[in-house]
Amino acid sequence: MQSECTGQYSLVVQGGGQKGAFAAGVLDTFIAANYDPFSLYIGTSAGALNVSSFVTKQPGLGLDFIINYTTKNRFFDFTRLLDKQQAAMDLDWAFQFVHSGEFPLDLKKGAQNLGAHKQALACITHVEEMKDYYFPIFSEHWYDVLRATCAIPMLYHQEIEMDGANWVDGGVTATIPVQEAYRRGACNIVAITTEAMIVETPKSHLALPTEPLEKLKQDLTRGIEPYIHRFSSASNNNKAKQISEHFLARVSQLQEHPHFPKLDSMPKNWLPDTDKLTEMLAQQSRKINFKAHAPRAVEMLFHHYMNHSTVSDFMNKPPQGVSLWEIAPHKPLSCSGLMSHKDDILADYESGVLAGKEFLSKVRG
Questions:
Q1: pTM (predicted TM-score)
Q2: What's the rounded mean pLDDT across residues 226-250?
Q3: Among 274, 216, 212, which Cα is nearest to 243's?
């Protein structure tokens, strides 16, 4: 239920790993223009880091973290997972620089800028409930909160323990938390996204027809099958087959979901590279209880997709009285979530700067 509309302005920032360079460019432009009408700030994953630097008014901090730390092999190395059965992502190493690096986040200044009447929140996912929760960024638990919102399942080595529960990446359950901003009373929402969610003619979300569903299942099978054969030992082969069966069964189940969109309205990037996903799951299943973990990881994938669908609905048809502005790139970003070249990161940052200036020219006249 939405609380009483206060008329406050909310800033919502999507994550996306290194794609966050775009939002960093937008927000640095806002800082330079002294534009900050917001009293509620919500970020998911990399979006929470960008929110943090915006609240502290430290331009360049978000870009610095992405380009100087997330591009290091120490931060992310896929071969660690495949060859050495280790975590591919080292968030602990990276986040020590948020506090004590050459360009540290000014936590004290952030708390001062918020004062008593503003909130800056990071979205994180409760693993057991598979539900999004929102924690203050500028608190004594800032380190765990920021790690949790960025803890991508299967890539980071563990779920974050906090408040007696386990937490992972907020993007699993709230890719763009505009609905939470609305629930908290914000009727004026500015959302920074990595690709445009608002379309000129929103499509109705109906059940997926049988024929496109079967095509989707066939496409997924083609992506999974090579790895079923690659892990040819009896135990690994059985586990990979279980992954395939579980994954495809969930696609069939979703056909009955009342909000499952038509195939042509699916977000382009809702599925990660299927080959890599399957190989990661197979590797993880060697180390841990497959039945307890791998299906849950697949469930996280589908929760992520379903949330993306409801967010699209909300943004294209916001509730009466809600004004929603989206700042999105005009063309696909050069970056991927991880393993992007520095030149691509800088290009997306500059794209964000231009988008920020375009937005300001419209709202300021």
A1: 0.74
A2: 48
A3: 274
